[in-house]
Write a structure and sequence with these properties.
With about 425 residues, the protein is mostly beta strands. It has 4 helices and 32 strands.
Length: about 425
């Protein structure tokens, strides 16, 4: 009696940069992700077995090879390229309930940010104050006053030693998170309001001393907190700078309403290159190094618009996932869109919000995406199923700011209703 032969398929493993892993292998068609995981761990000589996801033509393989090949009508005559991607070894639970509603601000909360170690939370408000909160008691630890106008943005240094805030009056103030006291006088120089703040990554300079600020006045300025002064001015944009990022490779990126992105070196402030192609304002920038740079010591195309209505569908926020596999964007068109972070290909649109989406944040394991909207809700999206995982109503008005703590346990949100909400799994 003849034994039915198992159909084999020739496969070639490669990482997301295209580097091949070993020679092509004949694998049984009934092999699924678990078997592939064992093979890759063996090929990589991993003593400790790591979890991996597998992608064929940018689509995650969640079924045996046989099922995938039949469904997608893929020829087994050719070598099948399988991309392996390391997964986070931990898993974040989706947030599904509000654990605290924290009142205190007298006007809208415009920005929220967890400290790099996830132990403290800061918020900036239209009431001109910055507050640093105790996450254990969920009460204000410090109320930092001194700004003369709305606090539009806040940024923690990657080592957690400083918190800088920028106001509508164009002032910047550095605070000591341990005391809530200002470190010196306000840093003056910008002529219009502050649109962004970004610190020099800790791996380039420790302890942290320098940060860059961007303003509606069209300039970016590099400041030294030790010297308490502006050390370099980055001038050249012809309209307002809307966003600024200090990248992991040591250069500064500025996006502007003049439709360009400029790249600067940071020893003298020289312009290195200019990225042109956008047909309208550049509103947001994302860097693949962003998540790593943010947690610090712890642990796409040009377009012209045909109508004013179309212009309103601007993208408010783009954000790379911590593992670099995905890019997500939040837009006035009420959707959150997902792109492949390596190839730039569009993957999915998450629809559910009934108002513009203002801000997004990733869970540390890159499996969940959080969005905050004008519709007063937060929503958690499952990247694997590309479906809504959790709907989080609770805010009485527009949600302007959201952040997921680096340890994955907490989410913070703030908005027009003047309260901070903490959410947990």
């Amino acid at each position: 009696m003849e034994v039915e032969p198992v159909n084999n398929v020739m496969c070639q493993f490669a990482d997301r940069e295209g580097a091949v892993l070993g020679a092509p292998l004949y694998l049984p068609q009934n092999a699924g992700p678990q078997q592939l995981q064992q093979i890759v761990n063996k090929l990589l000589n991993n003593e400790e077995k790591f979890p991996y996801s597998f992608y064929i033509s940018d689509q995650e393989l969640l079924v045996p090879l046989e099922t995938y090949l039949q469904k997608n009508k893929v020829s087994v005559e050719k070598v099948l390229s399988i991309v392996y991607q390391p997964q986070a070894v931990f898993r974040i639970r989706p947030v599904n309930r509000c654990t605290a509603t924290i009142a205190g601000h007298a006007e809208a909360v415009l920005s929220v940010a967890f400290s790099p170690d996830g132990r403290q939370l800061a918020s900036g408000s239209g009431d001109t104050s910055v507050r640093i909160w105790d996450l254990n008691t969920q009460t204000p630890m410090f109320t930092c006053t001194g700004h003369r106008n709305w606090v539009l943005c806040i940024a923690w240094s990657p080592d957690g030693k400083y918190l800088v805030s920028g106001s509508k009056a164009g002032e910047l103030q550095c605070w000591d998170p341990q005391t809530g006291k200002p470190l010196g006088n306000a840093l003056m120089g910008h002529k219009k309001w502050i649109t962004g703040i970004s610190w020099e990554p800790v791996h380039l300079s420790a302890p942290c001393r320098r940060f860059v600020s961007a303003s509606k006045d069209g300039d970016a300025r590099i400041w030294d907190v030790s010297l308490k002064k502006c050390v370099i001015s980055l001038t050249g944009h012809t309209l307002a700078i809307t966003c600024v990022k200090w990248g992991g490779d040591g250069v500064i990126y500025t996006g502007s309403q003049d439709c360009t992105i400029k790249v600067w070196e940071t020893t003298q402030g020289k312009l290195i290159r200019e990225l042109k192609g956008h047909g309208h304002w550049v509103n947001s920038l994302a860097l693949s190094t962003e998540y790593v740079v943010r947690t610090g010591a712890f642990d796409h195309t040009g377009k012209t618009y045909s109508s004013a209505e179309e212009i309103k569908k601007l993208i408010n926020h783009v954000y790379f996932s911590p593992d670099g596999q995905w890019v997500a964007s939040a837009s006035f068109d009420r959707s959150v869109k997902l792109w492949n972070g390596v190839t730039g290909k569009f993957v999915a649109a998450f629809r559910g919000h009934v108002g513009p989406v203002y801000q997004i944040s990733w869970s540390a394991d890159s499996r969940l995406l959080l969005s905050g909207s004008k519709d007063s809700t937060l929503k958690v999206w499952d990247i694997r199923t590309q479906k809504l995982k959790q709907d989080l109503p609770g805010h009485a008005d527009e949600v302007y700011a959201v952040d997921w703590s680096p340890d994955g346990e907490k989410v913070a949100s703030g908005g027009k209703d003047r309260v901070l909400k903490l959410w947990m799994g």
